[in-house]
Each structure stands twice: as structure tokens, then as C-alpha cells.
Amino acid sequence: MSNVLGLYGSSVHVCIDMQRLFAEMTAWHTPALEGIIPSVAALARAAPNQTLWARFIVPPHADAATGRWRHYYRRWAEITGDSLDPILLDLVEPLAGLAHPGAIFDKTGYSIFDTPAFVARLQAEAVDTIVFSGVETDVCVLASVFDAIDRGYRVVIPVDAVASSSPDSHRAVVDTLLPRLAEQVDLVRTSDVVAVWRGASGKHD
Q: Burial letters for 11-35: b for 16+ Cβ neighbours within 10 Å, e otherwise?
């Protein structure tokens, strides 16, 4: 695990897809999501003004998607907007109560970097470090991580604040894939990040 000294000043916490869609008993249920809520909440509370939230938004029906996504949503027809209760796209509690107005960014693909407003926010705030949390480690989190790396951001991943519906894939990413990127990705614990942020801002429990 790498250290996170110097993390606070130009960093943001980006939480990926911590939505009811993945928390509740849908076709995309991710049982491990519940277990990381305390860690994600701790990160958000430690740096409330530096926490951004990504939500995965589905099309109304498969034919409204583009290219191979049409095939994807024909497979997952019960997840499209015409069949899905829209409240399932909301963030889970207590995270919904921690999300500041203007800090939620919607995406229609795996990576949050496909959302222009999100990219503009990072540029406007001169961010150079991104702390990622959320689900799924091996899909939307990983896609966002690779895009962040390609754009030159330092990436920090608290390994106890990411989860997947596939424990084997989660472990493969955390234990095998990401360690190969040691010059660009720091693997830490939530407590490490919270300690740095609280120390830099003068907060105390």
C-alpha cells in the first residue's frame, strides 16, 4: 500500500454508481455494495466539498442506445427506463444525503470521463489527483480509472471502498491488475485517506 501524503489540496473523491439500482434486488444487484457504504460515507464526510458522484443512467429502451449498447440492453431489457422504477437510479442512503447540489454527474457508459461536465469540473478546479470509490471494481470503476490514468491524473483507490458483484474479478483487479500500475495508482485504505484529509482541514472526530 502506498502512502497518500500531499493528497488534500488538488484532489477530489469520485464515487462511482452507488445507486439503488445496484443495492436492491434488481438484475444488477451487487451484494457487496452494502459493505462499502461506511467507507464511501467516511470519504465523503472527510472531504464534502471535494466529493463528486457518478450515476449510471440507462436508456428508455434498447433501440434508444447506440451501437453495441443496443445488443447489451436487449439482454438487460428489465433494466431499461421503460421497465425500471426511476427511483432506482438514485444514490443509496446515507450517501444521497451527503451529495451536494451540482456534485452529481450522470453517465450513459462505463466511464465518468464520457460526461463533459465532469471533465470540465476537474479542469476548472485544477485537479491532479482522483480518489475513486464505488462499484463495480472491474467495470465502471476500472473504466474510469483507466481514463483518469490516460489523462495524467494520479489515481488513489481505497481498496475497502470499491466492490463488485464478482468477488473473483474484484480480487483480480485489486491484487493483480492495479499493482502493475504502481507508478500511476496508489492502493490504500479508506482510513489512510480520511486521516490525510482530516489532518489537512483541521477536522477532528
A: bbbbbbbbbbbbbeebebebebbee
Strand partners, 155: 130, 185
Phi, psi of 185 (to 5 degrees): -125, 130
What digits encode the pLDDT tens for the residues 80-119? Answer: 999 999 999 999 999 999 998 899 999 999 999 999 999 9
The sign of the dihedral angle between the CA atoms of 39, 92, 148, 199 is negative
Of 111, 91, 5, 109, give the one whose Cα is nearest residue 44.
91
Which residue, 115, 116, 110, 114, is CA-closest to 137? 110
CA 179/CA 72 separation, integer angstroms: 30
Q: What is the pLDDT of residue 1?
A: 47
Grid cell at residue 33: 455494495
Identity (one letter) of the amino acid at 82?
A: D
